[in-house]
Amino acid sequence: MNELLRIKDLQTRFYTRDGVVHAVNGVSYSIDEGEILGVVGESGCGKSVHALSIMRLIPDPPGKIERGEVWFDGQDLLTVSDEEIRKVRGGRLAMVFQDPMSSLNPAMTIGFQIVEALTLHLGMNNKQAEARTTDLLTMVGIPDAKNRLEDYPHQFSGGMRQRVMIAMGLSCDPKLLIADEPTTALDVTIQAQIVDLIKRLQAELGMAVMWITHDLGVVADVAERVNVMYAGYIVERGTVRDVFKRTRHPYTIGLLGSLPRLDEDPGTELSAIPGLPPDLIDLRPGCPFAVRCTYVVEQCWNETPPLEPTESERHTVACWRWEEIAQGVA
Amino acid sequence: MSGSLAETELRGLGIPGAEDQSQGVVRSPFRDTMRRLFSNKLAIVGILMLGTVILVAFMAPWIASQHPDKNGIFQAFPQNNKLPPSMDHPMGTDVIGRDMLSLIIYGARISLLVGVFAVSLAIILGSTLGAIAGFAGGTVDNVIMRIMDIMISFPTILLALVIVVILGPGLFNAMVAVGIVSIPAFARITRASVLGESGKDYVMAARSIGAGARRVLWRHVMPNTLSPIIVAASLGIAAAILDAAALGFLGLGAQPPTPEWGLLLSRNRGYMFTSPWMVFFPGISIMFLVLGFNLLGDGLRDALDPKLG
C-alpha cells in the first residue's frame, strides 16, 4: 500500500490569555491510500485540533502550528503557499464536521454550497456542476435530489444535512476524507446510517478516511488501524485487533473497560477512569496519563514515554510498563 | 414559528402528507421574514406611511398645484401671502405666497433622497470597515475601531456641523456629512455581527472546501450579517432625515429656495404664532416620515430575529 499522508512530529499550541495550551504535542503517524484510520480519545485530547492542523485551518491567532511536517501526496502542507493549500482543501483533502446543524451556511441553498466547491476546484460551469451535485446528493442517499438543490439547510433534518456535508466533502473526489466526529451530533439510528454510508462510499471510491470519534464501537466497526490520543499525544497505535485485543496502554485499557458490555451481568457497575484529562495549559513533564494511571511508577513522573513498538512492529505504545502489562504482572 | 419548525421536520422525515402543507412553496428565509413582517400591524402602518410619502414624492408633478421652474424656484405670489389652510391651499401659503402643500410634496423627494443617500454611504463605508475589522482582528481591528470610537464620541450633529463647515453648506454636502456621521454605527453593528458569524462551523466548512479569506467574508459571512444591518439601515434613515433637517434648520444644509422640510421650518419659525400652519405642516411631515421608518425598522427587527420577540 502506498503511503498517502505522513505526519512528523506535529505540534500545535494556542497562545491564550490564561497561558499556552499544548494541544498537540509531537504527533507522528501515517495513513495509507484507501485506509480507514480511527482516531479516538476523550474530548479535548487534541483529536480535532490535529486534524485541523493538517488542513492548516487552525485559527491563528491564537493557534500556532509550532513544528512538524505534514506530507500529503508529495507536498508538505505546512510549508506550501496559502494559495496552494486552498487548492488542496476540498480538492484532494476534504473534511466533514461534527455538527451538521451549523456546518451549512443558513443563508445559501445547499445546491449552491456544493456547486461552489465544484466550480472552485474543478472549474466546472454551472450546468455541469449542478448535474454533478445532483449525482452526489443521490449517491449519499438524498431522495429526489434534483428538486432539493434549491432548498435551504433548515429544510433538512440533521441526518440529511450530514449527508449533504458528506456530499460536499466528496464533491471533488478527495484522496483523504477527514471525518471529525461525523455521527456525534446525530441520534443512534441515523448514526448507523451515516457510518454505513461512509463505509460504502469509502469502498466504492477507494479514498482514505480519517475517522475521528470517541465512540470505540464505531472504530471497531469501520477502521483498520487506530490512533488512541491522550493530552495531545498518541499513546497507542495499531490495528483494531491489536489495540482492542492486545491492549497495552493503561489509558486504552481504561477506555475499553468503561464500555458497557452485552455479555456482562446487568447489575455490574461500569468502571470509569478516575480523574479528568489534564489541563493542557500547564502540562507537566513525564507521562500525561500518570495522574490517573493505576500502573504508575516513579519513572512515569519524570520521563515522557516514547511511542515504541510492542510485540508487533505495527503496534506501538507509549508506556514504560507495557511489557509488564502484557504479561499481566502489573 | 413553532408551526413552521414542525413542518420542516415533518418534511425532512419524508412523512407523507407533510408535503401537502407547503405545496410548492419555497420557504426561503426571505419569505419567512416577509410573512412575519406582514403579520405585524405596526410594521404595516409604517409601510403604509412610507408608501404614502414615496408615492407622493414620485407623483409630485401630478398632484402638486404649484411646480418649481427649471432652476428649482417656486414662483412667489406676494398677494397670497400667509393665507391659512383653505380649499385652494390645503396647507396654507408661506410668507411670499407659495403653496405650502406643493413645497412639502416636493420636499418629500429631498428628505427621502437625503435619508437613502446618507445611509447608503454609511453602509458602504461603515459596513465594509466593520466587516474587515471583525474578520481580520488584531491590529487592523484595533485601528479601525478606535477611529470609530473617536467619531462616535462626538455628538452627531456637532460632527456633522464640523464636516459641513469644512465642505461648505449645501444639500449635497449635508448628505455627505450625515452619511459620514452614521459610519461608526454601521461599522460597530457589522463588526459585532461578523465576529459572531466567523466563529460558526459553516465558516470553517467553507474554508475547508478551499474558499479564500475574501470569498469566505463576502460570500459566506456577509449574507448572514445582513439582518442587523437592514434593521439599522431602516432606523438610520430616520435619524439621517432628522439630522439633515436639523442642518437645514441651522442654515448649513439645503439652501433656499430648496423646499427642504427642515429649512422650511427654520425660514418660517418667525411666524410660528401668527401663521402656525407654516411650521406645523413641515414639522408634521418630518415626524410622519421618521415615524414611518422607525415603525418599519422595529417591525423588521422583530421579523428578522424572532428570538428577540
Number of strands of chain B: 0
Q: Termini separation of chain B (Å)?
A: 11 Å
Distance between termini of chain A?
Answer: 37 Å
In the predicted model, the low-confidence regions of chain A spanning at least 5 consecutive residues are: none
What's the total count of β strands of chain A?
12
Please count the helical segments of chain B: 12
> Average pLDDT of chain A, to the nearest integer?
85
The CATH first-level class of the largest domain in chain B comes to Mainly Alpha
Oligomeric category: heterodimer
Radius of gyration of chain A: 21 Å
Note the total helix count of chain A. 11
Write out the strand line-up for the largest beta sheet of chain A, numbering strands in chain order: 6-7-8-3-9-10-12-11
Percent range for helical residues of chain A?
25-40%
CATH class of chain A: Alpha Beta
Percent of residues in helices of chain B: over 70%
Structural class of chain A: alpha/beta
Percentage beta strand of chain B: under 5%
The interface involving the most residues is between: A-B, 40 and 29 residues
The CATH topology label of chain A is Rossmann fold
3D shape of chain B: elongated
Structural write-up:
The complex is a heterodimer of chains A (330) and B (309). By secondary structure, chain A is α/β, with parallel strands linked by helices. Chain A has one domain (3-102, 177-193, 205-327): P-loop containing nucleotide triphosphate hydrolases (Rossmann fold). Chain A is 32% helix and 23% strand. In chain A, the strands form 2 sheets. Chain A has an 8-stranded mixed β-sheet, with helices on both faces. In chain A, a hairpin with a 6-residue loop joins strand 11 and strand 12 (316-317). In chain A, helix 5 packs parallel to helix 6. Chain B is an all-alpha fold and 309 residues long. Chain B folds into 2 domains: 1-39, no CATH class; 42-304, MetI-like fold (Orthogonal Bundle). Chain B contains 12 helices and no strands. Chain B has helices at 2-13, 18-21, 29-38, 41-63, 100-136, 138-152, 156-167, 171-198, 201-208, 213-249, 261-268, 277-304. Chain B is elongated, with a radius of gyration of 24 Å. At the A-B interface, helix 2, helix 3 and helix 5 of A face helix 1, helix 9 and helix 10 of B.
